[in-house]
Amino acid sequence: MYGWRGRIGLIVPSSNTTMEMELHEALPEGVSLHTARMPLKGVTEEELLKMSALAVESAKLLKDADVDLILYGCTSGSFIGGENFENELEEKIEDEVKIPVVSTSSAILAALNALEAQQILVLTPYTEEINKREREFLEANEFEVLDIRGMGIVENTKIGRLEPYEAYRLAKAMFTEEADALFISCTNFRTFEIIEALEDDLGVPVVTSNQASLWYALRELEINESILGLGTLLREY
């Protein structure tokens, strides 16, 4: 039986081509991943809010697969409504399907707190509009955002075509020694190949949306296995 240690039900935007691939590569033995999708083509505030309203229907489909946990796998889609939006979204889904629910935004907050990071740098593929919302969300949760830089991309499939080295180069270009951690945002932004290299080169922990989501989902399932090659978070916490 697949998922004898735990089954993760993943909800992603319909245009996300990265998160499933990265998570499948890193799942511990005995943990399975099962996916449902919500319609989204462009990473805009309007589309993200419209998508979140459809999360319950996707979760109901995953319930049929007898999953143990549902992961709402969209960073911007789980912070776009403000400070407590991710908690409200999780509770709304949980009330309907009676299965524990976590979101990528909750995972990021938990990861940064576990790493005791306070002053952070944020790299995203988003537009200035979405970056503004992300800064507000992080600062409302008591993190100091030293800098947030985006790539101005709206089309989500275009984000999915970005190469990991692009994240690496941009991260190094924006780095400052004041930072406690670097956060690379977006579940459709491919990062797994460059997390270790960035940590080695910058000397601080690196958190990415998919890495934090995997870490948090496994911890919620009480699977505390150390995973190598994906940075301090999954190796030591």
Give the topology, please.
Blueprint: E1 6-13, H1 19-26, E2 31-38, H2 45-52, H3 55-63, E3 69-72, H4 75-79, H5 85-97, E4 101-103, H6 104-114, E5 119-123, H7 128-140, E6 144-149, H8 156-160, H9 164-174, E7 181-184, H10 195-202, E8 206-208, H11 209-220, H12 232-236
Parallel strand pairs: 1-2, 1-3, 3-4, 5-6, 5-7, 7-8
Can you tell me about this structure?
By secondary structure, this protein is an alpha/beta fold. The chain folds into 2 domains: 6-103 and 211-225, Rossmann fold (3-Layer(aba) Sandwich), CATH 3.40.50; 107-208, 3-Layer(aba) Sandwich (Rossmann fold), CATH 3.40.50.1860. The protein is built from 12 helices and 8 strands. The protein has a 4-stranded parallel sheet with strand order 2-1-3-4, sandwiched between helices. Helix 10 (195-202) links the parallel strand 7 and strand 8.
Mean pLDDT across every amino acid position = 96
Structural class: alpha/beta
Rg computed from alpha carbons, rounded to a whole number of angstroms = 16 Å
* Number of individual domains: 2
Largest sheet: 4 strands, parallel
Helical content, roughly? Answer: 40-55%
Summarize the structure.
The chain has 237 residues and is α/β, with parallel strands linked by helices. The chain has helices spanning 19-26, 45-52, 55-63, 75-79, 85-97, 104-114, 128-140, 156-160, 164-174, 195-202, 209-220, 232-236; strands at 6-13, 31-38, 69-72, 101-103, 119-123, 144-149, 181-184, 206-208. The chain is built from 12 helices and 8 strands.
